[in-house]
Amino acid sequence: MATPTGRSPELRHDPVSNRWVIFSPARAKRPSDFKSKSPENPDPNSSSGNSCPFCIGNESQCAPEIFRFPPDLGNPNWKIRVIENLFPALSRTGEYPSEAGGRSLKGLGFHDVVIEAPVHSVQLSDLGAGEIGQVLLAYKKRIEQIATFDSIKYIQVFKNHGASAGASLSHSHSQILALPVVPPAVSTRLDGTKEYFEKTGKCSLCEVRAKELIIDESTHFISIVPFAATFAFEIWIVPKDHSSHFHELDSDQAVDLAGLLRLMLKKMSTQLNNPPFNFMIQTSPLRVEESRLPYSHWFLQIVPHLGGVAGFEIGSGCHINPVFPEDAAKVLREVNVNLSG
Q: Residue 216 belongs to what domain range?
């Protein structure tokens, strides 16, 4: 039965995540009515000053520094710092086994923090494209450093914004977690893109150009709501040219990506009432087989937190999204934001 919006429920298969998503508009208001009930961060200055270890001047409260931009350690006026995580999920010291085996493995790897700005009240979207580009290049540099360790198989870059999205500190930062195994979601993604490639001879992410799903584009990147978006108002930023690894981007591409990322974060914040969100750089395993490169295509995924995951999703792995991607893309396309700040 059709809903008041004229759309009937629909199941869509995502070849990238290789799972089905149920679109059920009867469970939602109009797409333009979605707003976060707990915007983050309502008062970015609430924990600034001496209590925040990420603020400039409080460097001694942090775990050891790995590098900074600008790179001069004698210059206290840093813009970006990459440090070890004070409470790491994995240990960076110890002897790695020659290969993974059995049902357990030593918890060895790397867990770092990227402090994106020295001032507590400044969020990532407040920075200019050049400054965000430097943050992206900091990711690239750290990935290249970690990639020299043969034991590391996969590196996940991610950002948690807001307490309900997993951020323990409101000071703008992101994280890098390097694993000695390839996570199952990454393997599933490769299997899904492989299946699509074998059927069509094309990379599924090179094909995401449907006009009704596009939000905006830049010289090198395109922003879309994916055809089978798992979450309401989920956004992907995808390189136009085929690229398997995030750390292949150059300085010009970093600034170009930064401008589009900034625009998407501003649009999302304006339309959805500054929601908590996560973004993840979905890249390929470090030593992916050459035969997989034609269908391995990295992208940046942004997921606003607008609702919880319930029993059906947990039990089945099949998500229910109340907003059709075409409707979400149209709403986001039409949001006007001020980029002069």
A: 10-86+108-334
